[in-house]
Amino acid sequence: MRTYVHGYEPRESRRLHDQASVLTQLLHRDTVYPAGASVLEVGCGVGAQTIPLAMHSPHARISAVDVSTASLVQAREATLAAGIGNVTFREADIFGLPFQRASFDHAFLCFVLEHLDRTVEALQAVMRVVKPGGSVTVIEGDHGSAFFSPPSEFANDAIACLVELQRRAGGNALIGRTLYPLLIEAGFERVLVSPRQIYVDASRPDLVEGVIERTFTAMVEGVRETAVSTGLIEASAFDRGIDDLRATAKPGGTFCYTFFKAFAHIPPS
User: Fold this and answer.
1) How many Å apart are CA 98 and CA 176, to the nearest integer?
2) HSE of 205 in the Cβ direction (CA atoms, 13 Å)?
3) Which of 68, 70, 148, 215 reaches 20 to 30 Å from 16, CA-CA?
4) For residue 231, what is the DSSP state?
């Protein structure tokens, strides 16, 4: 990973927790680990996904790692505030995980691979520390799956800025659609990928705010300064795009986005 394109400002931490809250049922409902299972969460960040992960498997032992010291501080504070006691945190890079081979029963990665430039190598590093026959769960988004009404080329251009900046940072904002071939290339077996689509209209006011405004639009808006300063787009055009994204949250507007969740096994020894 070169840089985290969304940055580490407090507003990004709030966005991550808002996102996790609204997407818990969609992304986590079928991720449950048995009592006593050892689970490695790679790239836990500020703990936004750690909390639902731990709450769904309260008797599993979860080890969460991240490269950011500041993020780990926030993650510890967030899990403590949530009353969660089955998670330990450690600073570590996915390419140099400080664990013995076959240390864990399972591994979990959510919104991690999109920020990496060596995704297959990263998956193989995770495979090394999971026991033969164990499993890995990987969740990623795909910004190319964002469809909305009223349609707007300005909004599409603003989203394209985020995709391009993530590419320049060494990541891939369109990675969701590639999870199956990535896991196969990394050597995993019995790979199953399921699309997790979220659709929002005025009949779901909770999702209008949670998905359109506080999650997706906030994420795109977060790259405004970099997009403008690097010459990808004029400030007025970017701002028009953000306004048009917000318009999809108004009466008559709709918004649709697809996440991809993959489940795979480590080959038996």
Assistant:
1) 27
2) 1
3) 148
4) T
Q: Cis ω on the peptide bond leading into residue 267 (within 30° of 0)?
A: no
CA 66, CA 62: separation in Å to the nearest integer?
Answer: 13
Phi/psi at 142 (nearest 5 deg)? -155, 105
- pTM value is 0.90
CA distance 69 to 66: 8
Sign of CA dihedral 188, 142, 259, 229: positive
pLDDT by residue (tens digit) across 106-132?
999 999 999 999 999 999 999 999 999
Position 1 confidence tier, pLDDT thresholds 50, 70, 90: very low
Give the chain's count of helices (H) and strands (E).
Answer: 10, 8
CB 227 within 8 A of CB 39: no
- Report how far Cα 204 is from the mean position of its chain's Cα atoms: 23
At 39 the three-state DSSP class reads strand
Q: Which token pair is 238?
A: 């970017």
- Architecture of the domain spanning 10-265: 3-Layer(aba) Sandwich (3.40)
Each domain of the chain, given as residue ranges in start order, spans: 10-265
